Amino acid sequence: xxxxxxxxxxxxxxxxxSVSSRLLEMAEPTNEVDxxxxxxxxxxxxxxxxxxxxxxxxxxxxxxxxxxGTVRAALARLAHDKIVELLPNRGAFVATxxxxxxxxxxxxxxxVEGAILDKLLTLPDLSLRLLPLRQMVDExxxxxxxxxxxxxxxxxxxxxxQLAKLADNEVLTDLMRSLASRTSLIIALYDVPGxxxxxxxxxxxxxxxxxxxxxxxxxxxxxxxxxDCERRLRFDDDDTQADLRAVFNLKR
Amino acid sequence: xxxxxxxxxxxxxxxxxSVSSRLLEMAEPTNEVDxxxxxxxxxxxxxxxxxxxxxxxxxxxxxxxxxxGTVRAALARLAHDKIVELLPNRGAFVATxxxxxxxxxxxxxxxVEGAILDKLLTLPDLSLRLLPLRQMVDExxxxxxxxxxxxxxxxxxxxxxQLAKLADNEVLTDLMRSLASRTSLIIALYDVPGxxxxxxxxxxxxxxxxxxxxxxxxxxxxxxxxxDCERRLRFDDDDTQADLRAVFNLKR
DNA sequence: TCAACACAAATTGTTAACAATTTTTGTACT
DNA sequence: AGTACAAAAATTGTTAACAATTTGTGTTGA
Lengths: 252, 252
Prior knowledge:
Two copies of one chain form a homodimer. Helices cover 61% and strands 4% of the residues of chain A. By secondary structure, chain A is mainly alpha-helical. In chain A, strand 2 (84-87) and strand 3 (91-94) form a beta hairpin. Chain A starts with 31 loop residues before the first helix and ends in a 5-residue tail after the last helix. Chains A and B meet through helix 3, helix 4 and helix 7 of A and helix 3, helix 4 and helix 7 of B. Chain A binds a DNA duplex (30 and 30 nucleotides) through residues 31-32, 56-58, 66-70, 72, 88-91.
């Protein structure tokens, strides 16, 4: 479904040689397949690869200088965390989450991030541990001001993952990573680019309430942040077919 | 680590031709690789394949009548959800979660399952939807009485997954599946087989409190259930090397 | 008796080639 | 014109073979 997107030039994935792009991903890229996996993963959550784009194996082989077996394994893993869709005999596409999935992801985030905040409030030296997070928010704001959209998106996601990391629970961290990446896909699909209500302010409020040990305040801030994010989305049209028609001013 | 386990005869994985074994797994086994994946997955959480067992590619090819590429992809996915460990140039082993991972998994379960129960309490027609769960608990008890350990373990896990399914959120369901499978591995490693304190009673109490809309009661029942489960574990020795010595009555 | 070394067997990592399927293109027919 | 059918191109699914690494075994020497 939705092959309306053109098979974008994937050469751009090789750009941006992962300077600080290693904020949101997993362990060490020890294997070849891990490298490919991370590379594609980052490209998707950074919105350098948009939902619906076809990921042809041969092209990926060419881009990453590896054999098809390698990209195949990487694609399988990406499919397993719902970042790409794998259609039998048809190939791999960047996933296009629908309305139901969006609801599920955001509901899960409210549950999980609420629980995480609850635990953080019990931690000693919380203020101290919050410092790197504050710096991260500053970088967010800076990236937004200089209109560095990719960095901004990346940091917005990383904020939540770093927050989860403070809870010192690898299961929750991995989960948050997964939820953040899926959220990024959702935003790429349904967010109206005009009014992106500066998430860094909301992030800052979360940190402030957290620092003040204001339980009700933190939970409220997080819930509002997530609800705002979800409310910004627009699910107007059926699918991307409509976009194509709109481009050429055709009646439906 | 822990090659102390013998390379168990994996032929037994082909037995038990998945009659009702499809309780805990995912979508349709459309692909060949999905089939292998599910087969190994089920074998591990059913304790037919124990932690530490080496999963040699060639043997798996022989068992499942497929090529190495297929089992390779399946193993990669299993590694991705921490069911097997993939050591470079050494091969695949059934994972052996450690103490830290155990703590993380159980903590995550308390958080997530608590949130799930909270949502279930808001659902209409809750009593009606609970009926299949009651039946499942009955089957649990029956399996326990007739000493059908595999079915009992399977149903114990399936109970929690089915509970998550009631929340009508695929993200949470997948998460619960993952947590349950990892818990099964943990139990295989550290649970003392003697005193398995009949989880079906605790499951029943959860259902009863849920049916009565007793919020505090449900949360308490679930927390106790999980805590009991975690407390039953014994992390005496360093690793399985010790087991080997114990078997042959050797001083350390 | 034990350690170090070298060789052989087994296993994994990688690549290439072939078969099966789908998608596209071209042509004929109504 | 537009539809239906057929061949061709492109892409995926699968298998086999080769290279690299590790593991096990046996020998030598102190």
